[in-house]
Write a structure and sequence with these properties.
Layout (H helix, E strand, L loop, with lengths): L4 E4 L3 H14 L7 E4 L2 H11 L3 E5 L7 H11 L5 E5 L4 H10 L3 E4 L4 H12 L13 H41 L1
Parallel strand pairs: 1-2, 1-3, 3-4, 4-5
């Protein structure tokens, strides 16, 4: 089965990190990975692409993830949507699940949690991907790839922190003015 994915986040680096994890840990093919940078874009693209799984950020500038989940679920009550959030606010997660989300992951995403969320949504085990544990060169390549991914995750975390700080400063400025 060629699973199609729609990755929705207003931060390009986060979309890239999730795409990379899907390819590396979930057997995704690059040609089956699509993205959107807003909730409104996600709603429009969902109707055209009909992806098997959507990774959807909760906090976005135009249409938030909760609203997008509700609209996508109206289009397709069987949609499989995995929410992505930097905040582990129980009420927000419960609201997303009540709106129809299949699951959620925290940002920055952990590759194992991404794989588990995909497995749960698809109802299949993806851990049978062949591994060459005894091959020293392959082990070194995997270690190098993991180090690269860790750097990408750190960069994504830094960008999220900067974005949060900028939003807080803008909100404080609005209050002062």
């Amino acid at each position: 089965m060629n699973t199609t994915y729609l990755i929705v986040d207003d931060v390009a680096m986060m979309r890239a990190v999730i795409k990379d994890m899907l390819v590396r840990f979930c057997k995704a093919e690059k040609g089956n990975l699509f993205d959107a940078n807003s909730g409104a874009d996600a709603i429009a693209k969902y109707g055209k692409l009909e992806p098997d799984i959507v990774f959807l950020d909760i906090n976005m500038p135009d249409t938030d993830g909760i609203t997008a989940v509700k609209k996508i679920m109206k289009q397709d009550p069987n949609a499989k949507i995995i929410m992505c959030t930097a905040a582990s606010d129980r009420e927000i997660v419960q609201e997303c699940m009540a709106a129809g989300a299949s699951g959620y992951i925290l940002k920055p995403p952990d590759p194992e949690k991404v794989r588990e969320a995909v497995e749960k949504a698809l109802g299949e085990d993806l851990s049978d991907k062949p591994r060459e544990v005894n091959n020293e060169k392959k082990v070194q390549q995997l270690e190098d790839e993991m180090a690269k991914m860790q750097m990408q995750l750190e960069e994504a975390k830094r960008l999220l922190e900067e974005e949060t700080k900028a939003k807080a400063e803008a909100a404080a400025k609005d209050v002062i003015e």
